[in-house]
Design goal:
By secondary structure, the chain is mainly α. It has 14 helices and no strands.
Length: about 400
């Protein structure tokens, strides 16, 4: 690891500051609104299945549009994409606030679908735009701050929803979300940015999408890091099973469950502050493999623990190691992706991430049902370790990658 001269270096650039403020406001609004919709959906239907369908309704339009979104982000001004999508999100929030008393659960599903569609368009454009807000030498620092502040905003958004609902009710709480989306649009407008036209601007859309996919699958450094993340989350995650561990393994109450849920976040947060000081540029591939391996070990340790504080430690460690992998992978993508492919590479990356999160939750539930809660997490952790060994041998270019060689002189 190479020591950074300044932990706050990326934040000293105005374009990055406005970009981060856009991300914070959007994330707070989306997370708050998602939590509110879940509560309102259940209050209307009294059916737990309706809650399960929310994730499905959001992820389908997200995945359907995301490859086209990457191509779009490489063809037109990325700020324009963000502005239009956030405007759609803000309009949804305003409608929910004004017509909440007559709202049906069908419109809530429509709102969720539009949110998934908008986020699918936002993700590649935002990822590509971030690379243009700081110099190349600060990509690792900017990726760390992006990850850290996103997590803070996500916790603030989901955590504040209950307080807002109790104090303001549904209608005014949705108006709160509208306010943050409005602020987000203002920060987008304030980002100093000139879109650079790419070569092959008139490339047919499907040929352009194919070009982005082929670029990822032909480069060991990208395919290896994306695959590593996919299978680590798919097999190693156990967040969805925390209520079961809290009640049936550790014999704890809901308050303890909240602490367990918070532990990975605090681990990620402390690690993020460390990474702002010590960016990962030398041997990032090797560090990525080690961090995912340690993540798998942490999940095995958590599964076998019957002590609350020991379980807390392993969850804390899992968050710290997971954040290393997130920041490292983001830095690799930012530094090695050609400008004209940034949107399309980001869209392929988003598919890997979205698939791993959704399928990981499904895998955890199925495995816990048929193997038992503890054995399923141990088995998943062991599979994560196996994946690390396979990736390290199958993708030597990732393992031997050194980003310092790619820095501009």
């Amino acid at each position: 690891m190479k020591k950074s001269q300044d932990s706050f270096a990326a934040l000293k650039f105005a374009p990055f500051r406005f970009f981060i403020l856009f991300k914070i406001c959007t994330t707070i609004a989306v997370q708050t609104q998602s939590t509110l919709i879940g509560w309102q959906m259940y209050s209307l239907t009294k059916d737990p299945l309706s809650l399960g369908l929310i994730g499905l309704v959001e992820i389908i339009p997200n995945l359907l549009v995301i490859l086209f979104a990457g191509m779009l982000a490489d063809r037109i001004n990325r700020k324009s994409i963000l502005l239009v999508c956030v405007l759609i999100l803000a309009s949804n929030s305003f409608f929910l606030s004004q017509y909440n008393s007559n709202i049906s659960h069908y419109y809530l599903y429509l709102n969720v679908a539009l949110t998934g569609l908008s986020r699918g368009l936002i993700s590649p454009a935002a990822s590509a735009l971030m690379a243009d807000t700081v110099p190349e030498r600060l990509y690792a620092n900017s990726s760390t701050w992006n990850s850290t502040l996103w997590q803070l905003a996500a916790v603030l958004g989901s955590g504040s929803a209950g307080f807002l609902l109790n104090a303001l009710g549904f209608a005014h709480s949705y108006l709160f979300c509208f306010g943050f989306f409005f602020l987000s649009m203002l920060f987008i407008l304030l980002i100093p940015y000139t879109f650079k036209k790419i070569h092959h601007h008139h490339l047919p859309i499907f040929k352009g999408i194919k070009e982005g996919i082929e670029f990822v699958f032909k480069d060991q450094r990208f395919l290896g890091s994306f695959t590593l993340d996919l299978f680590a989350v798919l097999f190693g995650g156990a967040t969805i099973l925390l209520p079961v561990f809290a009640s049936e393994v550790l014999f704890l109450d809901a308050k303890a469950l909240g602490i367990l849920r918070a532990a990975p976040f605090f681990g990620a947060l402390l690690m993020a502050f460390f990474l702002t000081r010590y960016p990962i540029l030398e041997r990032p591939g090797k560090i990525l493999l080690i961090s995912v391996f340690c993540f798998g070990l942490s999940m095995i340790g958590f599964a076998l623990s019957t002590n609350f504080f020991l379980s807390l430690f392993f969850l804390f460690a899992s968050g710290a190691f997971d954040n290393i992998s997130v920041v490292t992978r983001t830095t690799i993508v930012q530094m090695l992706t050609p400008h004209h492919l940034r949107g399309r590479v980001a869209s392929v990356n988003s598919i890997f991430i979205s698939s791993s999160n959704e399928l990981g939750a499904l895998e955890s539930g199925i495995a816990a049902k048929y193997l038992g809660t503890v054995p399923s997490v141990v088995f998943g952790g062991m599979l994560t370790l196996l994946v690390v060994f396979i990736i390290s041998f199958k993708f030597p270019k990732l393992k031997n990658l050194d980003l310092t060689k790619h820095l501009s002189p």
